[in-house]
Amino acid sequence: MANKKPKRGGLNEKQRRFVAEYLIDLNATQAAIRAGYSRHTAKSQGQRLLTNVAIAAAVGTKTQKQIEKLDISADYVLRGLKEVGERCMTRVPVMVRDGRHLVQKTDENGEGVWEFDSAGANRALELLGKHLALFTDKLALTAKVSLSELIEQSEQLDQPKSMPAQTVAPVTGEEISGEPVQDGGSSEIVDPESTLEAVATADVALPTAVPVVVARPPIIRRAAKEPTE
Fold this sequence. Notes:
Mean pLDDT: 75
Radius of gyration: 48 Å
Shape: extended
Oligomer: single chain
CATH superfamily of the domain at 2-70: Terminase, small subunit, N-terminal DNA-binding domain, HTH motif
Distance between the termini: 142 Å
Order of helices and strands: HHHHHEEEEHHHH
Largest sheet: 2 strands, antiparallel
């Protein structure tokens, strides 16, 4: 019960232990286990403890004290990376055993074989490059189009497009009905099928919707009878 009572800095004994353990390897799960929390819930407990304001403040304070005590700075880290990279790129002879002696391995041309730590060198150079922002993705766009051409294309896009003129063949009620017309003119019976076929094969543009015309009945005029005497 005594461990659950808040003490110095608003942290109980188990929480202070978690802070000390977390500063060792910065692993919240393992720090929670070493501090005495349940192994089954250590992952969630570790994340929850790091969100505690008092614990986060304690971690920050102790980290800053460690940095000041060890005299760690950005220059120190960069100098260390530079030295590591140079050491890893230093080549060393590849030695092989020849009886009781070690001799340098040779290639097919009889020349000595050398090696160096390429993985360590690449890692050190990568960290240094990130610090200098050398690996930021840059996209270079080039276009072989003059300014006048761009302005002309823009003006063409802004102009409204005119619709082509459409010629519609007149369709009358008499033509659709196919009935004779007796209206003082010439009487002609028009076949509806032949009319539609002619319109379909004609080189004209038809509108999307053709108006429907209701056929009116034929007009039949009869001559008046002469009066009989």
